[in-house]
């Protein structure tokens, strides 16, 4: 028993704060399957996602308990600190699954409450710490696409609030939609701030293949989830008169977010080809690749919702194509995760 505990303790020592991106990726693909009328796959991924959420949650708590110094170092690190926001997004997406697939308003509200509390805690802790710390990296070493997880977490709260509002009586429904609107607007402003720095880093600093880490796909994912939140606000217009007065603005920015996210897709593909094809950077399993699967599923869901909210049938099979790509990437990564776990346990047993 002691040997097992020691092994678990050693295993969680280097646990990434961004590991909840696995829950994000699984959850959004489940919701995409639900919207596309594939209930068996949607429910299977929903059940799996609860298992993943509990396992990763327990491991994260053990990491905090056994290695508090490492957790503190992660919070002070410019590249690793934004990974904590994956927990907020995981709560919101699992809450959305619980509402739409499980039919449980109570669970969705509970997960939303936990997500909101941690969003407040992480937002003001991380950005305060990164502001006041004395030793800071240069922009070329201190920022990447992972910073946009703060945007994803913010917009995920807007999405869940917009979904929950449909099950609430007035005036709580009005208040929930106003909260969703406020988070949607703040998330958009945060994206503009951060994306300006990321784009500047892209174009004016030397870029190596190692710098192009998987979290750069969040460049697109942050816009996709912003599109989803805007689409849900449009659909909620009949329940909140103030949304109706802002409808042209909301529709315009929803398309703006979708168009920006769409622009990123060929760019990210081209950079991936440059990284692995031109520069021959080795393609090996990395847990951070889950942060690249999530945007694919989110793009499919957000496009479907935007088509519904704005009557855009000419977008046709685009979300289905992105869903197929996302599911393929998810399967490959899940196999890679199982193989990595088997190698890790085998190496520990020999030790």
Give a description of the structure.
The mean pLDDT is 92. α2 (21-35) packs antiparallel against α14 (318-350), α5 runs parallel beside α8 (149-165) and α13 packs antiparallel against α14 (318-350). With 351 residues, the protein is mainly α. The longest helix is centred in the middle third of the chain and has 33 residues, at 172-204. The chain starts with a helix and ends with a helix. It has a single domain, classed as Voltage-dependent anion channel (Glycosyltransferase), CATH 1.50.10. The protein is built from 14 helices and no strands. 76% of the residues lie in helices and 0% in strands.
What would a concise description of this structure say?
The protein is about 75% helix and about 0% strand. By secondary structure, it is mainly α.
Could you tell me the strand content as a percent range? under 5%
What name is given to the CATH topology?
Glycosyltransferase
Kindly state the number of beta strands.
Answer: 0
The CATH class turns out to be Mainly Alpha
Helix content: over 70%
Order of helices and strands: HHHHHHHHHHHHHH
CATH superfamily: Voltage-dependent anion channel
Write the layout of secondary structure elements.
Elements: H1 2-11, H2 21-35, H3 39-66, H4 68-75, H5 85-100, H6 105-132, H7 139-142, H8 149-165, H9 172-204, H10 218-235, H11 241-245, H12 247-278, H13 290-310, H14 318-350
